[in-house]
Specification:
Shape: globular
Distance between the termini: 22 Å
Mean pLDDT: 96
Strand content: 15-25%
Helix content: 25-40%
CATH architecture: 3-Layer(aba) Sandwich
Number of domains: 1
Number of strands: 11
Largest sheet: 9 strands, mixed
CATH topology: Carbamate kinase
Number of helices: 7
Structural class: alpha/beta
Length: 232
């Protein structure tokens, strides 16, 4: 294995699963299933926390109480988890889907001991519904799950190459930041990763890699330390 980390957690944005085919694009699901399969073949024990923004973003549902909106958002991540499980199985990747919200017959309850055993046995573990609580982002859920599973890093897949000094969409001259500390990230007020998630990661010395995930073998490159911005 030539990856930098033996066990890692991928935070996969829900928007990455959307495409021409709609919120759950067949091509997108197949692409990320192959990316995960390549990481597993390289010897990485990989867990995945899915976002749900392609299905429903709870914070955008301002016409209903926030608790209900966040519940809808969490269920959106479960929809993504079911779809990604099918895509992984189509690639012959053994996997288990766990949910922080009870959903018998669809997903198992989140159990860090069972999830850790599954990772050790070569299965990919999909973790849906965030922490199961409103007002907590899936970024924070990703850090918490990574810590509970003994993961050595969190990799946040996005649509940009990493962290920039300013918004590269608005400022073409914005410079990429290759690495910075958790504390520096928080002091700069950067938005790529939720501040609460970064603060928890800092407390436990957990590295976070922000990388562009929509390119072939990008996940494997990030696991090798060849791409993305490192918060450590």
């Amino acid at each position: 294995m030539n990856a930098r980390w033996r066990r890692a957690l991928l935070k996969l944005s829900g928007e990455l699963l959307a495409g021409p085919g709609g919120p759950l694009d067949a091509g997108g699901l197949s692409f990320y299933a192959r990316e995960v399969a390549a990481a597993r073949e390289a010897g990485v024990e990989l867990a995945v926390v899915m976002g749900g923004g392609n299905v429903a973003r709870g914070s955008a549902l301002t016409y209903i109480p926030a608790t209900a909106g966040h519940a809808i958002g969490m269920l959106g991540t479960l929809i993504n988890g079911v779809a990604l499980r099918e895509a992984l199985q189509a690639e012959n990747v053994p996997c288990v889907l766990m949910s922080a919200l009870p959903c018998p017959g669809v997903a198992d309850p989140v159990d860090p001991w069972r999830a850790g055993a599954a990772l050790g046995a070569g299965e990919v573990v999909l973790l849906a519904c965030g922490t199961g609580n409103p007002f907590v982002t899936t970024d924070t859920a990703a850090v918490i799950r990574a810590l509970s599973l003994g993961a050595e890093a969190v990799l946040k897949g996005s649509k940009v190459d990493g962290l920039y000094e300013s918004d590269p969409m608005r400022d073409p001259s914005a410079r990429l930041i290759s690495s910075l500390s958790h504390r520096e990230y928080l002091a700069r007020g950067l938005k790529a990763m939720d501040a609460a998630a970064v603060a928890i990661a800092e407390e436990h010395g957990l590295p976070i890699v922000v990388f562009r995930a929509d390119r072939e073998r990008a996940l494997l490159a990030a696991l090798r330390g060849e791409t993305g911005s490192v918060i450590a």
